[in-house]
Every structure is written in C-alpha cells, then in structure tokens.
Amino acid sequence: MVVHLRDVSAHRELSHQVSRLTYTDPLTGLPNRRALLRTLAELRDRPRPWRGCVLVLDLSGVQEVNETRGREVGDAVLVEVARRLRAALAPDHVLARLGGDEFAVVVGCAPATADGVAARLIGVLAEPYAVGGGRVLLGACAGVAEFGPTATPDELVAGADVAMRRAKSLGGNRSERYDESLEVQLMRRSMLTAELPGADRRGELDLLYQPIVAVDDRHPVAVEALLRWRHPQLGTVGPEEFVPIAEAAGLIDEVGGWVLHQACRRVASWRAEGRPVQVAVNLSAVQLRESDFVAQVAAVLDAYEVPPEALIVEAGEADVVADVPAAVHTLGGLRALGVRVALDDFGTGHSALTYLRRLPVDILKADRALIAEPVTPGTPAAPLAEIVVRLGERLGMSVVAEGVETAEQLSALAAAGCGYAQGYLFGRPMPVEHVEAFFELHADGVPRAIGPSTVD
C-alpha cells in the first residue's frame, strides 16, 4: 500500500512537471502561448458570456541588445520586462509570453479601457533598463482585439497581432485596435512592399508637375515634381503611402534617384527649348541624413548639364526639425552647389521657427493651413500670410504660398506682398504635355526664377 502511494505521488509530480514545461515560458516563468490559448478557450466556453480584450505587445530593440551586448543581457532585459508587466497589471489580468519579444495580456474590460491599459504598459516598458552594467532603452507597440463569442482563441490572438503590426508600421510606441479593415490595409502594404523593388525599371513610376507661379501675373516660374506609382492592380498609389515603405525597406535611394534623374532630364529639355523654368523635388527624411546625398545630386546635375540654380530641393519641416544637425549639413552642402533649398510645409507646428536662422534655406513654402479660408465671414482671406512674408523678408528668404484655391486668397497674398503661389487655382498636378501647354499659355511672360540664386 505504501509503495502504491509513493508511485502515485511520483506520477503526480511527473505530471506537474510535464504540465509546467508545456504551459510555462522557461525564461520568464510566465504562461506561454499554449497556456494563453487554453485560458481563452475556457473563457469562451463559460455559461455566461465573458467580455474582455486581448492585447499583444511587441518590443523593439531586443534584437539589437542581443547582437551588441550578448544574449545573456537580452534575456535579462526580457525577465525585467516580465517583472514590470506583472507589477503594472491587476491580479485578474492574465499575462503571457508569446515567444521572442512578444507578450500578451487578457483583460476583462471594454476596448476603450483596454486601449488605456495598452498605453500605460507601453509607457512602463519605455523606461530605461539597468542591466549588464549599462543602460538599455526599448520601444513597444500594442494591438488590441475585443473578445468575440464566435472567434476562436487563435483568431483572437491573430487579430490583436494584426493591430499590433499596424501600430508598428505607424512608427511604434503606440497601440491600435483591431477591425477587419486593418487586415486589408496590411495585405495592401505587404503587396506594395513586395512589388516596389524594380517599379522604376518596369515603367510604373510617374512624375506629375504642378506649376508655381508669380503672384503678380500668374506667370510660371517653377514646377514641383510629384511622384506617383501606377500600380498594375491597385491603380495610382500616392507617395504618402509608398515612400515610408521605401524608407523602411531601404529602397529610398532607388526611388529618390529615379525622381532626381527624371526631373533633371525634363528640366534640361525645357531649358534647351528656351524655357528657363526651375524644377522642385522632394527630399525624404532618410535622404536628408545620407552623407553622400549632396554628391549624388552633383553627379546628376553634371550628367544632364543642368545648372544648379535650376533645381530646388524641398525638405519637410517635420523632417528637418527631427534632425537639425543632419539637415544643416545636407542642405548647406546643396546650397553650396548652387541648388536652391526650400523648407516645405512651413507653419505646421514642428517648431522650425526656433531653428530658422540656422537653417541654410532660400525659400519658405507656407503650408496651406496658413492661408485657409477663414471661418468667420468678413475676416481676411489669408490672415497669417503677411506674418510669413515679413518673416521671409527679414531672413532674406522668398515665400511660396501652398494650397491656393480661390481668387480671394490670391488677392490677400498679393496685398501681403507674397511673391509666389502654388495650388489648384493655377493648376493641379499634371502630366508633361499639360504643363508644357500651361507654359505656352504664358509664353509672353518674362522668364524668371524664385528669388536670387544663392551660393555660399
């Protein structure tokens, strides 16, 4: 009898060990993915419907820690992550490690409350980690999926994972909530990412041109080259969608180089025909930080025998403020070549005004919000235009007003002394043949450029 009891006790202990190995993450001691799915299945099968959400958290930076500091330090970081999450959650929340640098939380609350939990956890995980005799910083993003009675546990976790990947694609350090449209968006992004390489060689990239005119007589002085992707299945894809993909995939040199070549080839052709118009191209955030970008521009100008002052390079205000030293270096190098430099989207609230005196800029492109139609009837049509124009004058910069759509706005800009404007009032982005017809309509105007050429 005693021997039999000992056998039962040993069997129970063995079963307990097997269960622990089956349902526990060995590094953190947390429940693993299998345990999480079992918990979700139990909640689904309750007699009374259970309301709650699943959160999937993804850490960024762990792989870099493993590569630079060693896997032991990386493991220590993950153990600390688990400790912080445990401490930040309520006793009735279920925390699990899905594997790698992903964790999951089951919370018995409505989606809006779960969003708040996700935001709090992201903040907790962003605090520095003191491990391995040094300091480690991580980022995190989260996806939230609401518990549905018809969804399987796997589908619920997959939904939260889709939302997490959406948050990650938007820059991380944020959370997103799952809905079915997210899967469509992610499938579209996946397709664009897979098919963007070689789009230039397949003839799918296209440039449209929007005129920039002198305010006094509407004579065209420049055109802005605007990129489009003519995708064979998805139709026209705008740069706001695929340029971030190109940056993330390391393809921005390929895409940006194509734009620069095409724009310079076109302006060389126009100048040979007696049209001394300038062409503006947009600079991406990644290109702004590239040490050899100025040399790339110089080589393209030389290849098409385009004088540097015929090219305007536009850098977005947000991108410049994000890395002012890199912006000063790159834009200063372009200016030294004789290329005109424009600060795009000026006035969008990114504090460029603080750095404006330091920036090697020739042209301020005032954001459309600064000249938008007033809400109150009878007020000036462009109330902030005069302020921007005076600022440009004090700093020796030309001002281009973007997004001009009405004659009233144009009159207000003229009264404020603004020299140049761009917008649907003069022309939408158009193909080459249409912009050339636009030139012909204004063939009697006096050829000119935006402000004097500036070479430091």
Automatic annotation (TrEMBL):
Report domain GGDEF positions.
50-180
| Ranges where the EAL domain occurs | 189-443
What is a single Pfam family found in this protein's UniProt entry?
Answer: GGDEF
Q: Which domain of life is it from?
A: Bacteria
For this protein, the record's InterPro entries field holds: Biofilm_reg_signaling, EAL_dom, EAL_sf, GGDEF_dom, Nucleotide_cyclase, Rev_trsase/Diguanyl_cyclase
Protein name (record)? GGDEF-domain containing protein
Organism of derivation: Actinocatenispora thailandica
